[in-house]
Amino acid sequence: MPATTTAAPARRSRKRIAIVAIVLLVAALALRWVSQPSQVSGILLSQVGKPLGLELSASGASEYRLRGTPMLVVRDLVVRQPGAAAPLLRAERVYLALPWRTIRAAGAVLDVERVELDAPQLDIAALQRWLATRPPSTEPLRMPSLSDGLRIVRGRVVGVGWSIEQISLSSPELHPQRLLRARIGGRVLSDGVQVPFDLAATLQRPALARGLGLSGGVSVQAKDWALPMRIRLGALLHSGDDGLGLDRLRLGAHARYRAGDTDLPFVFGLAGPLRYRDAALSLAPLGAALRGKDAIPQLDASGRFAFGDGTRLHLDGVLAQWPEAWPALPPPLGQSKSPLPFVLDYDGPADFSGDSALRLQRDQTRFDGRFRLPAVLAWVDASAQGSLLPPLSGRLSTPRIEVSGATLEGVEIEIEQDDDATTTPAAAPPTAAPSQPAPKPAATRPLE
């Protein structure tokens, strides 16, 4: 009996020791596994990606810290829609610091301390394909708070036929219900044109339909000319079925046109709704105003603008007067002081080197023609020594003109541009008799 009694406690003791040993072994294995940052980052990326329908992976060395404010660093991050050929997002390095209360809340709280992105690359087409798969939601967009701010360096956004390079973005803090201040810079590249910018941004609140303000330096740079400017922009953020963009946009700019020895200061303003959809940027309908001196005309116009695989522009407006610095208009255009209604259409490369169509009218006299902006600007710059006629082609029609005491009626003048950018006028045979009835001039359709 005593032997049996002492054997049972011994067996229970050995069982407890075995259980403790197994627990310690499992704990040691778990600590060894957890001590590998790649394992921790893999779990976190998987948990983040599943509800979004995205695959997140990081092939570079990862780091994490649990003491104080938890921190995670992942390198060579790739975010991809399952089955997609192109990643939606890449980043050399992602730094995330978030307090314990956010971790314990399991998504119910979005308080983050700081976010840093090194060399992120965003593919707009892939982003739009992913957004199209997301189920509609009536829930308002939840924005995280960043108590220690946001920093992006060497960013890149790629669209169809354009990209934004060397993006930098910094903000000291972000809160969904507070004013956001940030600094953003970069360089837009498209079709031979680059647009470097360095802007201060203010957002009323980080939410849609809230006021956005931008101010700072922007420069449009082509091969032979540049347009540096200081801008001020105000608008409301927009997102809808018609795309992302800005509502109630108001843009004012102090600019200078520079080409060779030419330096022409002017101011201009634009207004209208801005949209980005299907790889195209549009501003329609738009209102435009231009004010300047010397060779810069004073005009007001309405129309539309689109930028995608090329640039399309339509302006319908009025020139207040013919600039005195331009060569004088031939009579009867130059004899009148009336405003000059015009219609301008362009469809071509982003640097405006293609053909533009121009319809110009004063009283009963009308011109329909085509020109190339770089050639006309060069003509304006050298007008004192160059040709009296601008480098364009088209037709001038007027019902009546007086030349050296003779009255010509139903006059039509064809202007043809030579290969060397000079122009040659060729007058159609006019009717030269005051007593004869004047024939109808060609192209008498009223200006649209």
Strand percentage lies at over 45%
What is the gyration radius calculated from CA atoms?
34 Å
Query: Could you spell the SSE succession in H and E letters?
Result: HHEEEEHEEEHEEEEEEEEEEEEEEEHEEE
Give the biggest beta sheet.
23 strands, mixed
Question: What are the segments in which pLDDT stays under 50 over at least 5 consecutive residues?
Answer: 27-37, 420-448
Number of strands: 25
Tell me the distance between the termini.
Answer: 117 Å
Mean pLDDT: 78
Task: Report the principal-axis shape.
Answer: elongated
**Relative helix content:** 10-25%
Helical segment tally?
Answer: 5
The structure class reads: alpha+beta
Quaternary arrangement of the chains shown? single chain
How would you sum up this structure, described in words?
There is one protein chain. This protein has 448 residues and is of the alpha+beta class. The protein has a domain of 118 residues. 17% of the residues lie in helices and 50% in strands. The protein is built from five helices and 25 strands. The strands form two sheets. The protein has a 23-stranded mixed β-sheet that branches. A two-stranded parallel ribbon has the order 5-8. Strand 10 and strand 11 form a beta hairpin. The longest helix has 33 residues.
